[in-house]
């Protein structure tokens, strides 16, 4: 989130503008990376601190909610950055979908490396 906050703080006149499709792809990929990390955090909390089986529906839902909130916060933050347009619904949707994709990517990696969770 620190990297996203930093990038969102760059004024519009000093920020290379991406074409619309690349902008959405950048949002998707950036938040997919965040989704992987957040899903990993929730999985660790579940296994280590709570000592429960992993319920992937819960991990994906919690990750989606968290990434959705972080994406909204990032868009809100951009409203106060000179030369940037914040509150962009298309960017937020790309953030949200990227976070969900990241959660599913983490699930796949988790199973690939031999760990088995429930649900």
Structurally, the number of domains stands at: 1
Structural class label: mainly alpha
Report the span from N to C terminus.
29 Å
Count of runs of 4 or more consecutive helical residues: 4
Gyration radius over CA: 16 Å
Characterization of the model:
By secondary structure, the chain is mainly alpha-helical. It has one domain (19-112). 71% of the residues lie in helices and 0% in strands. The protein contains 4 helices and no strands. The model has no long low-confidence stretch (mean pLDDT 84).
Short summary:
This protein is mainly alpha-helical. Helix content is 71%, strand content 0%. It has one domain (19-112).
Describe the secondary-structure layout.
Elements: H1 2-8, H2 20-49, H3 56-78, H4 89-112
Summary tags:
119 residues, mainly alpha
């Amino acid at each position: 989130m620190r990297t996203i906050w930093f990038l969102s703080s760059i004024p519009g006149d000093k920020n290379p503008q991406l074409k619309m499709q690349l902008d959405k792809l950048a949002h998707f990929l950036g938040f997919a990376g965040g989704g992987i990390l957040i899903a990993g955090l929730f999985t660790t909390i579940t296994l280590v601190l709570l000592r429960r089986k992993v319920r992937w529906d819960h991990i994906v839902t919690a990750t989606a909610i968290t990434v959705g909130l972080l994406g909204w916060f990032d868009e809100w933050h951009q409203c106060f950055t000179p030369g940037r347009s914040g509150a962009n619904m298309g960017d937020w949707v790309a953030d949200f979908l990227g976070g969900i994709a990241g959660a599913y990517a983490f699930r796949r990696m988790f199973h690939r490396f031999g760990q088995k969770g429930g649900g």
